[in-house]
Design a protein that fits this description.
This protein has four domains: 4-258, 2-enoyl-CoA Hydratase, Chain A, domain 1 (Alpha-Beta Complex), CATH 3.90.226.10; 293-472, Rossmann fold; 495-501 and 513-579, N-(1-d-carboxylethyl)-l-norvaline Dehydrogenase, domain 2 (Orthogonal Bundle), CATH 1.10.1040; 589-675, N-(1-d-carboxylethyl)-l-norvaline Dehydrogenase, domain 2 (Orthogonal Bundle). The strands form four sheets. The protein has an eight-stranded mixed sheet with strand order 12-11-10-13-14-15-16-17, sandwiched between helices. Strand 18 (555-557) and strand 19 form a beta hairpin. The model has no long low-confidence stretch (mean pLDDT 97). It is built from 28 helices and 19 strands. Helix content is 47%, strand content 12%. The chain has 680 residues and is an alpha/beta fold. Helix 10 runs antiparallel to helix 11 (242-257) and helix 26 crosses helix 27 (645-655). Bound molecules: 3-hydroxybutanoyl-coenzyme A and 1,4-dihydronicotinamide adenine dinucleotide (NAI). Residues 296-302, 319-321, 325, 376-379, 383, 387, 404-406, 428-430 line the site of 1,4-dihydronicotinamide adenine dinucleotide.
Length: 680
């Protein structure tokens, strides 16, 4: 059946799209709409047209898989200009998510109606582009410049109610009555002339509005190319005739589509969705119902992990060894919910409901009925094995037993139980109630059902899950290690912590390794013996420099925690290097990049080689969502593809004698570089 069909309702022609899953505006859809509109024009009995979609949503955008390939006619921008110009009124009837080219189709229609649950937005900026089918020119003409800036540069969708308020839609339909209400609306306006054409309206901008927007959003936009292009196009809508604004939109999207940034952002869009797929897992693998959860350890991670479930209505029993630690953990959860209410992320009622689902306990017996237990106790194998041994005795048969370990061998942890097929790693990131990433660590014996359940649950708690195999640090922390080792080594050879961090900031990371270390606290895992100074961190801690919290670490901090390079820390580092006999030299930014970032790519290649990640794009998802890798650089593996794997290998070879005696270049990386291949 064709993706576009038409229905006649007396004098109204309804054009229906059925192009699952999201009614993307691919070639067949565009062509079908064109033919149906021609039919409407040619038939004198048709007085008005409705465009609507079957399935879960109105058009959710252009078909992104067509980007970068030769576009087949009719192309969306031309089709929409023509549609707006025809002499019979077109009504767009929206439900689900009217996004990107979908909303642009609605904007080029003469009237817009939507169900109350619909959402509308122009999210193109998140793909590193801008709305390229007239959206930058039409939206400001309909909703005004400030609202258009928010929607186009911010990229977040708005509700139908908000859309009605700001004039983006003409009316709301009954939630279950869109088709009929749209036809009635079409009949009502069928004879009204002139037809309201958005391109004929004026967009007016207050003086200074664009620069004020740039200034207010500078931090969010830093490093990205698309937001500035969006602003320029909206500015053109306010300052130039429609046709000239459209021409600028056209030329800007052309450049953005060809940019590495947009390729990287589109890569992450698909990578995120690919990560949810597990190779070799049979479709329909049975899921284990998770109706209640236990968390062991109410520290930094345990509390945040618990919140994920409480917030979606799943009761959590949280266990500690001592009352004091339990009280502290519960109080922190309460404080975090209060913060969510204060910031408007939750209502008081929602927060109260969440906290009412929490049961604190000191007794393992209280975990005997839960469907899933997540352990978040100290990072120590003996402690973890003891905990899993106890769990094995109390947990009901069929309960999933998970560890939030950062580095440890999940198979060894599983060996402390009589049911390793029910054991896996669920590695959350800190703060666990906020960070999007979840590494799902598949043990040698983890059953398919347990794995599939974990992936399904991740979606429910709105995490992006990536499957990792058992190895030291899994995907993320394993790749962090060479980066941290090299950063630590570089400051001993003469680079300042601020030099290394600057290279990371320039690259687009929100923070450099030493800023991060100061924020986390240098005393994590410190033995607290000031006479033992085997590492720079130990030397800094011995001098009371514990990081931000003590007013100094690698940097100095004022009361407002503003950071400045620290002559004291630099002296401690130089003395430490002198005591180790490490000569000092000038170190270039390029060397910092090569040693810190290329070694990560190399470790990523080893992870792939060993089958610890399913695909290169999974590694990219881990780094973008878990470690602040700038999304416009697509993750380490795509970035390596973009700069060229030969460049990476040459850099590693150049630095080889500084990378430590155990350093080796990954054979997979070498092979790909030599044969001109890429990871993605
Ligand atoms: N093009 C092609 N495929 C798309 C797509 C698109 N625009 N949007 C989603 N898909 C695919 C996904 O890759 C996924 O495929 P898979 O099942 O093979 O993995 C499938 O559709 C379902 O997508 P989701 O898993 O994301 O489904 P959800 O229900 O969770 O979300 C959605 C639906 C909110 C519509 C979400 O898919 C989304 O945000 N899509 C992108 C919307 C977008 O960016 N639109 C603008 C496109 S650019 C554009 O329109 C340019 C124009 O200005 C000219
Ligand atoms: P934490 O020290 O803040 O909390 C651990 C809690 O576990 C403490 O409250 C302690 O009293 C409790 N505990 C210890 N042994 C216990 C036992 N036998 N039974 C019950 N409770 C016990 O530690 P954090 O940071 O929450 O780390 C927990 C785990 O999460 C570790 O494995 C860590 O590697 C991992 N992790 C930590 C991250 C972080 O950024 N802090 C990020 C991701 C994982």
């Amino acid at each position: 059946m064709s993706v576009i069909t038409t229905e006649r309702h007396d004098d109204v022609l309804v054009i229906v799209s059925n192009n699952p899953p999201i009614n993307a505006l691919g070639h067949a859809v565009r062509d079908g709409i064109k033919q149906a509109l021609e039919q409407a024009i040619a038939d004198p009995a048709v007085k008005a047209v409705v465009i609507r979609c079957d399935g879960r949503t109105f058009f959710a955008g252009a078909d992104i898989t067509e980007f970068g390939k030769p576009m087949q006619e009719p192309q969306l921008p031309g089709l929409l200009e023509w549609m707006e110009s025809i002499e019979k009124p077109v009504v767009a009837a929206m439900h689900g998510t009217a996004l990107g080219g979908g909303l642009e189709t609605a904007l080029a229609s003469h009237y817009r109606i939507a169900v109350p649950s619909a959402k509308m937005g122009l999210p193109e900026v998140k793909l590193g582009i801008l709305p390229g089918a007239g959206g930058t020119q039409r939206l400001p003409r309909v909703v005004g410049v400030p609202a258009a800036l928010e929607m186009i540069v911010g990229g977040a969708p708005i509700s139908a109610k908000k859309a009605l308020e700001i004039g983006l839609i003409d009316r709301l339909a009954g939630e279950d009555n869109l088709a009929a209400d749209a036809i009635a609306f079409a009949r009502e306006i069928a004879d009204q002339r002139p037809l309201p054409r958005v391109s004929e309206k004026q967009a007016v901008a207050e003086p200074g509005v664009f620069d004020a927007f740039r200034a207010a959003n500078a931090r969010k936009m830093k490093g990205f190319e698309a937001p500035e292009a969006c602003i320029q196009a909206i500015q053109a809508a306010a300052e130039l005739p429609y046709a000239e604004g459209l021409a600028l939109e056209r030329s800007l999207i052309g450049k953005l589509l060809a940019s590495d940034q947009s390729k990287a952002q589109r890569h992450i869009f698909f990578a995120e969705r690919a990560a949810a797929k597990i190779d070799g897992l049979a479709a329909g693998t049975p899921l284990i119902p998770i109706k209640s959860v236990g968390v062991i350890g109410a520290g930094t991670m345990g509390g945040g992990i618990a919140m994920n479930f409480l917030s979606i209505g799943i009761p959590v029993t949280i266990l500690e060894m001592q009352q004091e630690a339990l009280d502290r953990g519960v109080a922190t959860i309460g404080k975090n919910y209060a913060g969510n209410v204060k910031s408007g992320r939750m209502t008081q009622e929602q927060a109260d409901k969440a906290t009412s689902l929490l049961t604190p306990t000191l007794s393992y017996d209280d975990l005997s009925t839960v469907d899933l237990v997540i352990e978040a106790v100290f990072e120590n194998m003996d402690v973890k094995k003891e905990v899993f041994g106890k769990l094995d005795k109390v947990a009901k048969p069929g309960a999933i037993l998970a560890s939030n370990t950062s580095y440890l061998d999940v198979d060894e942890i599983a060996s402390a139980t009589s049911r390793p097929e029910y054991v896996l790693g669920l590695h959350f990131f800190s703060p666990a109630n906020v960070m999007k990433l979840l590494e799902v660590v598949r043990g040698a014996k983890t059953s398919d059902s347990v794995l599939a359940t974990a992936m399904d649950l991740a979606k429910k708690i709105k995490k992006i899950a990536v499957v990792a195999g058992v190895c030291y640090g899994f995907i993320g922390n394993r790749m962090l290690k060479p980066r941290q080792d090299q950063a630590g080594q570089l400051i001993l050879e003469g680079a300042k912590p601020s030099d290394v961090d600057r290279v990371f900031l320039d690259f687009g990371f929100p923070m450099g390794p030493f800023q991060l270390a100061d924020l986390a606290g240098l005393d994590i895992g410190w033995h607290r013996d000031p006479t033992r100074r085997e590492t720079v961190r130990e030397a800094l801690c011995a001098e009371g420099r514990l990081g931000q919290k003590s007013g100094g670490g690698f940097y100095d901090y004022d009361e407002k925690r503003n950071r400045t390079p620290s002559p004291v820390a630099e002296k401690i580092i130089a003395e430490f290097a002198a005591a180790k006999g490490i000569p000092q030299r000038q170190i270039s930014d390029e060397e910092i990049r090569e040693r810190c970032l290329y070694t990560m790519v190399n470790e990523g290649a080893k992870i792939l080689e060993e089958g610890k990640a399913q695909r290169a794009s999974d590694i990219d998802v881990v780094w973008v969502y878990g470690y602040g890798w700038p999304v416009y650089r697509g993750g380490p593996m795509l970035w390596a593809d973009q700069i060229g794997l030969k460049t990476v290998v040459d850099g590693l070879k150049r630095q080889a004698d500084r990378l430590g005696k155990d350093f080796t270049v990954s054979p997979l990386l070498l092979e790909k570089a030599e044969s001109g291949k890429t990871f993605n």
